[in-house]
């Protein structure tokens, strides 16, 4: 990246990566916007973000647009929210959250809704939770997260729901983990994160799973390795992947393009250096036919199932469905000619399966549990 910073807001749209706002090496909030082209391996600077300069903000991409909000300007906590259109390189402000202004919140997008909560303001750490409906352009407050108030949590959408947890309050760094059920608008307490308590890293969802990368450990200081963890929502389990090079870093950014994770910026807590490097890790196989995030394309329920499975997809035309067991053996296949279908899997043994749904230009893969 052309400049070093920590707390950049990062996301990817249409094969390009974006790093927006954040704190520069002079410890000042910024309004700059950088775009990364992985084909040319080149950064370019775009029009500045039109809102207040900020750091400790949060954002995500959804349906070809970027979203950013909250954070801290030079003197003020913020609660505004913005939409970015890469086709015009232009930002537009959305309805401001009718909640406390804050920095370091959770911010997750799923099914035309933005889930926001946690973070801290001048009064301390927050445990509230709010939903912004993109269709009605309105906010609703729902139940607080079951755990303590906190800021700088980890969060992502994975499977059919959204998740948040970890983070810290003062010097207390958490390892608890929660699911917000998007169907019932209720919280569920999940298994604690199995690694060292974690705060101030980066995270993302990809192909139905969630990922947390780097950050500070249980003493709110660097860890000896830049740990990388994968979360399987249907099993509520974590598994550790290859760490990034060097020690962990505070407040980095990341985005995913064609199965590759791009990891950037942040602060080296050992030396104090503000970083502008960029690393890449091939997380999943790149696809020339446009493998995409299944959370936006396919719904599959109930999951777990006792045999009857409903599938709703957004593909036009025929879609081929194959189901394989954990050994990779094909156990079921069919073709769907409609967007809504019900299939009978009562002949399958109890266990975990992989469902693949392929249209003319897209492949989706999801885990299925048969009870």
Q: In words, what does this structure look like?
A:
The protein has 371 residues and is an all-beta fold. It has 2 domains: 278 residues, Neuraminidase; 77 residues, Immunoglobulin-like. It is built from 1 helix and 36 strands. It has a 4-stranded antiparallel β-sheet with strand order 2-3-5-6, with no helix packed on it. Strands 7-8-9-10 form a 4-stranded antiparallel β-sheet, with no helix packed on it. A hairpin with a 2-residue loop joins strand 7 and strand 8. The longest helix is centred in the C-terminal third of the chain and has 4 residues. It is globular and about 65 Å long. About 2% of the residues have low confidence.
Jot down its keywords.
1 helix; Immunoglobulin-like; Neuraminidase; mainly beta
| CATH fold node name of the largest domain | Neuraminidase
Strand order across the biggest sheet? 2-3-5-6
CATH homologous superfamily classification of the largest domain: Kelch-type beta propeller
**Mean pLDDT over the full residue set:** 92
**Subunit arrangement of the protein:** single chain
- Uncertain segments are 288-296
CATH class call of the largest domain: Mainly Beta
Number of structural domains: 2
Tally of separate helices: 1
| Radius of gyration of CA atoms, rounded to a whole number | 20 Å
Q: Provide the CATH architecture of the largest domain.
A: 6 Propeller
Q: How much strand content do the residues show?
A: over 45%
Summarize it.
Helices cover 1% and strands 47% of the residues.
């Amino acid at each position: 990246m052309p400049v070093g910073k920590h707390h950049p807001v990062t996301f990817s749209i249409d094969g390009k990566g974006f790093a927006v706002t954040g704190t520069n090496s002079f410890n000042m909030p910024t309004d700059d916007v950088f775009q990364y082209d992985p084909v040319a391996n080149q950064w370019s600077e775009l029009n500045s973000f039109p809102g207040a300069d900020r750091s400790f903000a949060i954002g995500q991409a959804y349906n070809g647009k970027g979203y950013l909000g909250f954070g801290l300007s030079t003197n003020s906590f913020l609660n505004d929210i913005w939409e970015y259109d890469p086709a015009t390189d232009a930002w537009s402000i959305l309805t401001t959250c009718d909640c406390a202004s804050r920095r370091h919140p959770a911010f997750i997008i799923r099914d035309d809704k933005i889930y926001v909560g946690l973070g801290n303001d001048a009064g301390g750490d927050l445990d509230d939770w709010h939903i912004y409906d993109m269709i009605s352009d309105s906010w609703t407050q729902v139940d607080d997260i079951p755990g303590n108030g906190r800021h700088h949590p980890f969060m992502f959408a994975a499977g059919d729901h959204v998740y948040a947890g970890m983070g810290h309050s003062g010097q207390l760094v958490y390892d608890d983990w929660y699911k917000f059920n998007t169907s019932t608008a209720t919280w569920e307490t999940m298994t604690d994160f199995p690694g060292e308590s974690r705060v101030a890293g980066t995270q993302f969802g990809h192909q139905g799973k969630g990922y947390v990368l780097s950050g500070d450990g249980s003493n709110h200081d660097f860890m000896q390795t830049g740990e990388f963890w994968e979360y399987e929502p249907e099993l509520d389990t974590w598994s550790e992947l290859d760490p990034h090079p060097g020690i962990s870093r505070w407040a980095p950014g990341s985005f995913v393009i064609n199965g590759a994770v791009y990891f950037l910026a942040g602060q080296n807590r050992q030396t104090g250096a503000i970083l502008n490097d960029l690393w890449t890790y091939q997380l999943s196989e790149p696809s020339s036919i446009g493998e995409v995030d299944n959370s936006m394309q396919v719904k599959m329920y109930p999951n777990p199932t006792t045999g009857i499975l409903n599938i709703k997809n957004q593909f036009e035309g025929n879609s081929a469905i194959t189901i394989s067991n954990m050994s990779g053996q094909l156990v079921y296949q069919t073709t769907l000619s409609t967007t809504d279908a019900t299939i009978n899997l009562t002949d399958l043994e109890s266990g975990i399966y992989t469902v693949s749904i392929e249209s003319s230009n897209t492949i989706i893969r999801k885990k299925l549990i048969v009870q």
